[in-house]
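Q: What would this chain look like folded?
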Amino acid sequence: MGKFQRVFVIVLDSLGFGAMPDAEQYGDSNVDTIGHIAEKMQLHIPNLQKLGAANIRPINGVASVTEPLAKVTKLCEKSHGKDTMTGHWEMMGLYITKPFKTFTDTGFPSELIAELEKQTGRKIIGNKSCSGTVILDELGEEEINEGHLIVYTSADSVLQICGNEETMGLDALYHYCEIARELTMRDEWKVGRVIARPYVGKKRGEFVRTSNRHDYALKPFGRTALNALKDAGLDVISVGKIFDIFDGEGLTESNKSKSSVHGMEQTIDIAKRNFKGLCFTNLVDFDAL
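A: My prediction, written as C-alpha cells:
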C-alpha cells in the first residue's frame, strides 16, 4: 500500500454540505443539511472545525481555521443517481451510468403491491414516500391491531417495510423483506435496497425505531477497490451499513453498528489493532430524528 499501511474512510452519511449542480434533476432543491441545522441551533463541532469543515463552505456559528488539520475540498459525484449505493460504489471506483428506479411521486405499482400481499399474506398499507417516524405515527397502530404491513419509500431507490418487534417479530419482518427483495429484482421494479425498519411501542407517540435495521442491497455491478484490496491479501474491514451497501463483496470483516456513536467507538477500537489495509465506516444518523 505504498506509504500507508492503513487507510480509514469514514462517511458522515447524509450530512450534506449543500446541493450539487444537478440536484433538481433528482427532485431536490435548497438541500443543505449542515446549513439548515446551523440556522436553527448553535453547532458545537470542535473536531470537524479543526479538520476544516467551515473552510469547505461557511457554516453559521462555526469559524474557519487558518491551518486545518485536513486537506479539504468539495467533490461532485460523477455517477448518475443520488442514493447511498451509487455514492459509496463510486467512492470505491465503480461508475454507475443508469440511476436506480425511484417511486417517490407515485408509490409502488399496484402489480408489485398485489404480489407482495399474496406472498406475505398481509394487506399492504402506506405505499407512499414518507418519513419513517411520521408513517409509524400514522399507521403503526393499524399495523399492530389489524396485522397489516407498512410499506413505504423515500427520495432514494428504496422499498422499506416496518415491523413491530414485539408483535410481528424480527424473523417475520426479515422474511417479508427477503420476499420483497426477490420481487424487486425485476427490471421494472428494481430498487437499490429493501430495508427492514423494526420498531417497538404500542401506540402513536410512543413508537421508536430500533437498531435491528437490515438492508437488502443489490450486489455491485462490477469489481470495486474493496475486491482489489481483498484479492491482494489485505484486510478490508467494514463498520456500520457498509456490508449491506456492498452486499458483503470485497470485505474480510464486518461490524454492525447500533448508532453513529457506536460506529465511531468501533472504529477507534479497530484503530488500536494491528491490521494492514482499509477500514471503511458509515455513520448513518445525521438526517434522522
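The first helix runs from residue 33 to 40.
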